[in-house]
Design a protein that fits this description.
The chain is of the alpha/beta class. The protein has five helices and six strands. Strands 2-1-3-4-5-6 form a six-stranded mixed beta sheet, sandwiched between helices.
Length: 140
């Protein structure tokens, strides 16, 4: 994920209400060089705790893990760890949904059910990597 000149891994927190999805993401991210998973959470309280403690480079979050406020909680997450890029992972409901995710403060969106490369591209896109694949949808 990082170039040879930058040996520091990209730190990532994952958040999803589904234990099975979190386990799948843990396996997927563990296989990607340059990524270091620093925590996983199932709810908003756990996400905030991890963001404040770990200050990760990226948060990959399912809106359902955010609780009743859902995507409206993105500014709260950003305030907990200002430098963290937020990648929303969900089943897309069309272009309007993706656009609203980005308008609400996500740095990128990735569709659940896509290949691992799309997930890694979304993280790179959020972090500002100009070689990002077209499958990631960055924020404007």
């Amino acid at each position: 994920m990082n170039s040879p000149q930058n040996a520091t891994p990209t730190t990532v927190v994952i958040a999803d209400r589904s234990a099975a999805m979190r386990a799948a993401l843990v396996r997927m991210f563990a296989a990607e060089p340059g990524l270091r998973l620093v925590g996983e959470a199932e709810d908003a309280a756990g996400i905030l705790r991890l963001l404040r403690r770990e200050r990760p480079d990226a948060l990959v979050v399912d809106p359902g893990a955010l609780g009743p406020g859902g995507l409206q909680s993105l500014p709260l997450l950003r305030g907990a760890s200002e430098g963290t890029k937020i990648i929303v992972a969900d089943f897309p409901e069309g272009p309007a949904f993706t656009e609203s995710v980005l308008r609400l403060g996500a740095d990128a969106f990735v569709a659940k059910g896509t290949a691992p490369d799309a997930w890694f591209a979304a993280i790179r896109s959020a972090l500002g990597d100009s070689s990002t694949a077209a499958s990631a949808i960055p924020a404007p």
